[in-house]
C-alpha cells in the first residue's frame, strides 16, 4: 500500500515550485491534475505565434499568389487543421495520458509502433527545420556562427523539456507577453507602409488554384501536425474539464495566431521580397525605431525556444512509448532525461549535417508531414468520438495481453489503406529548383492541386469505421467497469494488468 501511495504522489508538485516532472507515459492521477483551462489559451496561441509560422506565409507569393489570397488560403487551412488538433486536445483530461499511449487502443500495444514512427519523424523533423531557421536567421542578422546557434538553441530546448509540463506552460506565457506587443508593432508598420522600403508592386502575382490549394494544404498540415502533441499538454487538466470549452479555447487560440502570422509573412514576402522571416522582422523593426529590429529578432528567437522544447518533450513521450511497446520500461525521471538527451543529439547532428535553405526545408517537410499524420488522426478521432465514445480500459494500454492486444488489425489496416489511397494524389515538388520529386497520377490530372490529405482523411476514417464493427465493445465495457483509478496508476508502473 505504501508503494502505491509513493507512485501516486511521484509527480505531484510540492511547495508550489517548479520541479523536474516525473510523469511521462504513465497515467496522471486526478490528485495531480493541477493545470487550469485558462493556461491552454496562451499555450496554443504561442504555439503558432512565431517566425516559423511567418515563414509559411512566404509559400504563396513564392508560387505567384498575392498576399491577400495567401492570407485567405493560409487562414482557411489553419482553421481546418485546428479542428482536428482541438478535438485531440479533449482526450487529455478525459484519460490523463499522452496522446500516443492512447493510440494503442486503435493499433495495439506493439502495432502502435507504426504510428509512432510517423509522429517521431514529425517531432524530430520539426525541430531540425526550427533550429535551421534560427541558425540561418541569426547568421543573416547578426553574423553569428550557425553551429554555435544550433547547439545553444537545442540545449535550451532540452533543458526546458527536462523540467517538463509546468515550467513549459509558464515559459510559454512569459514568451507570449514578450512577443505580442512587438509583433503587433510589426503588423501595424506593414499595414501603414512604414517598413523602411518602398512597396514593391508585383503584377506577376495574382491568383491560381494550385498555389491556393498548396497554401491551404500547408496551413492545414501545420496545425494537423499538432494533433499528436495536444493531449500531452492537456492531460494535467481535471477530468471534469468542459470538453466544449477546451475544444473552443484550443481552436480559437491556435487559429487566430496561425492566421495572423501567415498573413504577416505573406505581406512581408510581397512588400519586402523577403525569404527570411527574422531578417524581415529586423528590417521592419529598424524602420520604426533604430535598433528595434535587432531587439525584435532577439525576443523572437528567445520566444521560439519553448517551441523547440515542445517538440523535444513530445518526441520523448513518443520514443518512450515505442521502447515500452517492445520492452516494458519503468517511466522514471532518468528515462525521461536520457531520451531527451538522445533526441537532442539526433536533432543537432541532423541540423549540422543538412544545413541549406530553411524555408525550402520547411515547405518540403510540411508536405511530407501531412501525408504521414492524416491517416493516424482520422483513425484516432473516429475511434474516440464515433466508435468507443471515449470509453477505454486505461490499464490495458500498458499490457499486450489486455483487450487491445499486441496488434489491432482495424487500425493498422485503416492506416495503411488510407496512406496507399493518398499516393496517387501526392504532389511533392521541389519549387526552389523547379524539380518534380513525385507527382501522383491523379495529382497530375488535377494540374498539381494536392488533395491527398483529404483523400487520406476520408478513406482512413471510413475504413476504420467499417472495420471497427468487428470489435466486441460490449465486452470492453464490462472490463472498463471493473477498473478503478488505483488500477490505472498501478498498471502504468507494472507489466501486470488486472486479470479479466
Explained architecture:
The protein has helices at 2-8, 40-48, 51-56, 59-62, 67-89, 91-95, 99-102, 104-107, 113-142, 146-163, 165-191, 209-224, 227-234, 243-272, 277-288, 292-326, 333-354, 358-387, 409-422, 441-445, 452-467, 473-481, 485-493; strands at 427-430, 435-439. The protein is globular and about 65 Å long. It is mostly helical. The model is unreliable at 1-16 and 495-500 (pLDDT under 50). The protein has a two-stranded antiparallel sheet. The two termini are 22 Å apart. The chain has a domain at 33-358: Hydantoin permease, CATH 1.10.4160.10. The protein is built from 23 helices and 2 strands. Helix content is 69%, strand content 2%. Strand 1 and strand 2 (435-439) form a beta hairpin.
Features:
two-stranded antiparallel sheet; mainly alpha; globular; Hydantoin permease; disordered C terminus; 23 helices; 500 residues; 69% helix
Topology, please?
Blueprint: H1 2-8, H2 40-48, H3 51-56, H4 59-62, H5 67-89, H6 91-95, H7 99-102, H8 104-107, H9 113-142, H10 146-163, H11 165-191, H12 209-224, H13 227-234, H14 243-272, H15 277-288, H16 292-326, H17 333-354, H18 358-387, H19 409-422, E1 427-430, E2 435-439, H20 441-445, H21 452-467, H22 473-481, H23 485-493
Antiparallel strand pairs: 1-2
- CATH homology-level superfamily of the domain at 33-358: Hydantoin permease
Distance between the termini: 22 Å
Q: Largest sheet, order of strands side by side?
A: 1-2
CATH names the topology of the domain at 33-358 as Hydantoin permease
Return the CATH architecture of the domain at 33-358. Answer: Orthogonal Bundle
Strand % is: under 5%
Radius of gyration: 22 Å
Biggest pleated sheet = 2 strands, antiparallel
Tell me the number of strands: 2
> Which structural class should the secondary elements be placed in?
mainly alpha
- Helix fraction by DSSP (H/I, runs of at least 4): 55-70%
**SSE order, as H and E?**
HHHHHHHHHHHHHHHHHHHEEHHHH
Query: How would the global form be characterised?
Result: globular
Number of helices: 23
Low-confidence stretches: 1-16, 495-500
Mean pLDDT over all positions: 87
CATH class identity of the domain at 33-358: Mainly Alpha
Amino acid at each position: 500500500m505504501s508503494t502505491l501511495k509513493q507512485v501516486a504522489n511521484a509527480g505531484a508538485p510540492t511547495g508550489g515550485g517548479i520541479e523536474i516532472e516525473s510523469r511521462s507515459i504513465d497515467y496522471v492521477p486526478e490528485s495531480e491534475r493541477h493545470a487550469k483551462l485558462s493556461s491552454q489559451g496562451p499555450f496554443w496561441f504561442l504555439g503558432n505565434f512565431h517566425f516559423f509560422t511567418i515563414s509559411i506565409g512566404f509559400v504563396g507569393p513564392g508560387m505567384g499568389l498575392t498576399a491577400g489570397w495567401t492570407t485567405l488560403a493560409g487562414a482557411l487551412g489553419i482553421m481546418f487543421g485546428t479542428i482536428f488538433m482541438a478535438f485531440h486536445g479533449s482526450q487529455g483530461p478525459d484519460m490523463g495520458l499522452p496522446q500516443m499511449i492512447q493510440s494503442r487502443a486503435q493499433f495495439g500495444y506493439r502495432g502502435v509502433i507504426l504510428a509512432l514512427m510517423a509522429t517521431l519523424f514529425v517531432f524530430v523533423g520539426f525541430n531540425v527545420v526550427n533550429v535551421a531557421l534560427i541558425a540561418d536567421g541569426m547568421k543573416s542578422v547578426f553574423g553569428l556562427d550557425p553551429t554555435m546557434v544550433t547547439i545553444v538553441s537545442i540545449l535550451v530546448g532540452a533543458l526546458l523539456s527536462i523540467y517538463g509540463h509546468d515550467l513549459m506552460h509558464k515559459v510559454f506565457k512569459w514568451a507570449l507577453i514578450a512577443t505580442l506587443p512587438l509583433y503587433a508593432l510589426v503588423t501595424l508598420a506593414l499595414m501603414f507602409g512604414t517598413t523602411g522600403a518602398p512597396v514593391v508592386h508585383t503584377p506577376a502575382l495574382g491568383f491560381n488554384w494550385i498555389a491556393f490549394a498548396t497554401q491551404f494544404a500547408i496551413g492545414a498540415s501545420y496545425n494537423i501536425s499538432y494533433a499528436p502533441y495536444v493531449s500531452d499538454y492537456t492531460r494535467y487538466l481535471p477530468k471534469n474539464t468542459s470538453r466544449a470549452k477546451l475544444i473552443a479555447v484550443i481552436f480559437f487560440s491556435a487559429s487566430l495566431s496561425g492566421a495572423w502570422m501567415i498573413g504577416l509573412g505573406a505581406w512581408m514576402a510581397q512588400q519586402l521580397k523577403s525569404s527570411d522571416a527574422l531578417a524581415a522582422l529586423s528590417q521592419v523593426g529598424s524602420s520604426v525605431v533604430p535598433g528595434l529590429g535587432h531587439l525584435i529578432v532577439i525576443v523572437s528567437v528567445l520566444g521560439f525556444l519553448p517551441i523547440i522544447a515542445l517538440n523535444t518533450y513530445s518526441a520523448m513521450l513518443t520514443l518512450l512509448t515505442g521502447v515500452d511497446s517492445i520492452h516494458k520500461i519503468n517511466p522514471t525521471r532518468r528515462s525521461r532525461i536520457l531520451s531527451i538527451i538522445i533526441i537532442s543529439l539526433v536533432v543537432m547532428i541532423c541540423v549540422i549535417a543538412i544545413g541549406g535553405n530553411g524555408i525550402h526545408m520547411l515547405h518540403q517537410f510540411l508536405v511530407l508531414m501531412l501525408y504521414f499524420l492524416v491517416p493516424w488522426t482520422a483513425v484516432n478521432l473516429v475511434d474516440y468520438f464515433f466508435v468507443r465514445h471515449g470509453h477505454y480500459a486505461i490499464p490495458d494500454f500498458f499490457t499486450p495481453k489486455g483487450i487491445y492486444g499486441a496488434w489491432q488489425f482495424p487500425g493498422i489496416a485503416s492506416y495503411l489503406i488510407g496512406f496507399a489511397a493518398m499516393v496517387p494524389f501526392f504532389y511533392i515538388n521541389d519549387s526552389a529548383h523547379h524539380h518534380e520529386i513525385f507527382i501522383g497520377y491523379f495529382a497530375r490530372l488535377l494540374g498539381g492541386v494536392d488533395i491527398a490529405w483529404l483523400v487520406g482523411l476520408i478513406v482512413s476514417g471510413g475504413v476504420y469505421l467499417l472495420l471497427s464493427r468487428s470489435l466486441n465493445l460490449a465486452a470492453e465495457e464490462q472490463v472498463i467497469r471493473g477498473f478503478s483509478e488505483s488500477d490505472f496508476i498501478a498498471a502504468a508502473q507494472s507489466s501486470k494488468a488486472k486479470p479479466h
